[in-house]
Model the fold of this input.
Amino acid sequence: MSKNNLQTADILVFFIYFIVVSAYGYYIYRKKESTDNPQDFFLAEGSLTWWAIGASLIASNISAEHFIGMSGSGFAMGLAIASYEWMSAATLIIVAWFIIPLYLKNKIFTMPQFLAQRYNDKVSTIMAVFWMLVYVFVNLTSIIYLGAIAVSAISGLSFGFCVVMLCIFSVVVTLGGMKVIGYTDVIQVVVLIAGGLVTTYLALSLLAHEYGFGSDIIKGLSVLKKEAPDHLHMIFDKSSPHYMELPGTSVIIGGMLVNNLAYWGCNQYIVQRALGANLKTARTGILFAAFLKLLVPVIAVLPGIIMYVLHNKGLFQQEMMGIGGKPKPDQAYPTLMNLLPAGLKGVAFAALTAAIVASLAGKANSISTIFSLDIYQKYFNKSASEHKLVLTGRWAVIICMLIAGLVTPALRSLDQVYQFIQEYVGFFSPGVLAIFMLGLFWKRTTAGAAMAAAVLTVPISSILKFLPYWTNGAFPNYPFLDRMSITFVLVVVLMVVISLVKPRQYTSPILLPQRTDFKVSPAFLIMAVIIMGILTALYTVYW
Done:
C-alpha cells in the first residue's frame, strides 16, 4: 500500500504533464497575432475548434468538486448523485439547439452584456456583481479547498502550501487568455479522463481482489451490485435518508433542470467557450461535451461507491475517519489514490491537478471578462484602450485568485462540499434562469420585471429554506431542488405579472427567436438521439 506521498516515478510523471501543458500554452500564446485584443484574450474569437470547445467546457466544469466532492457523495448516497452529470448531457442538447443560436446571432460576448441590451444597465450590473461574488466566494474557494485537500493528502505537502501552488499555477495559465485556456484544456481533459479511468479500473481490481476474484473488474462490478444495492439507484423515494438532497423525479424534470439550464445556458464561464465560434462549430463542441459528460460518473462517482464497499468490509477505517469518529465522505477519493502504485499514482495526481487548474483558469478568466467589459469599461474608464482592458483583466485574475485563496481555509468544517456548492448556488439559479429565458423567448418581458427577479430571488429562496425553522415545522421543509423549482415558478409568475401590469414598448436591439434559425443538421439530430437513448437506458436500468 502506498504511503501518503509521491514516489520518484509519480513526481516524474507529474512534471512531464506540467512541462507539456506549460510549453503548449506558451506556444499557443506566442502564436497569437495580438495579445492586446480583448475579443481574442477573453473569447479566443474564431480560433477554437469544436473539439477544443467541447474539451474546454468539460475541463472548466470538472474539477476537484467532482473527483473529491462527487466521489464523497457517491460514498454517502451512491449513484443517484450522477444525475447532475447525466442530466447535464440532456441539458447541453437544449443549450446547443435553442440558446446558443440566440447568443451568436446577437454577437453576445458576456452574459451581463446580453442583460444590458435586452433590459438595461441596472439589471446587467446587479447580475455582473452577483456572478463575480459567486465565482470568487463559492466556485473558486470550493475548488481550491477540495483541490488542496486532495493534493495535500496525496503528496504529503501542507494544505496551505497546496493552496498557494494551485493558485499560482492557475494564474499562469489564465494570464495567457481564452485561446491558451481553450487549447491547453484539450490536454487537461485527456489527462483527467485517462487518469480518472485508470483510478476507477484499479479500484475495481482492488475490490475484486478483496472478494477473491483476482483482478477481474467485471467481477468487481458484480460485487458492487451485491454489497451495495442501495447505492445503485438513481431515484430516491421519500423514505430515503437522502431524499432531501435528491428528491425523487425532481432530479429529472424539476429543480435539476432549473439548475442545469442556469449553469449551462446562462453561465459566463461555460457559455464563454462557444461565444467566439460560428454556430456549427459551437453546436458540435457542445454535443462533444455532452458525450464526455456521460463518462464523468464512471471516473467521479464509481470510485466513491467502491470505497463505501471497502470501508464496510473493514478497510481504511483510519484513512476515512472524520470529526466525531464518523467517516468523512470527501476523503474517499484521496484515500483511493494513495493505493495506486508508483507511476500510476502520478497519472492520477496529474489528472486531478489538471481538473483543478483548468476549472480555476476558466472561472478566473470569466471573472476578468465580466469585470473588465461590464464593470471597469462601463463605469470607470469608458475610453479604455484594448491594451488597458486586457491589462485590467489580468489584474482581475490575480486579485480574485488572491481573495479566493485567503477565504478557502474557512471551508474546512464542511462535510460534503459538492452538496454545499449545489445548494447555495441554487439560491440564485432560479432567478437567473427566469431572467434569461423570459428575456430570450418572451418579447413583452420588461426591465422592471427582470429587476424584481434579480432582487427577490435570494429572499424567496431564503424564506423557503428557513421558514420551517422559524415556524417550528409549521411550514414544510422542502428539499433544495424542490425549493429551486418553487422559486423558479414564483419568479416567472412575478415577472409575467409585472410585465403585463406595466407593459413597455419593445425597443431592445436583441433579436428574439422570430428572427433566429433553429434548424439543426442531420448529424446533430443523430448525435442528440444517441445521447438521449443512452440516458434513457441508464435511468431505466438504475431507477
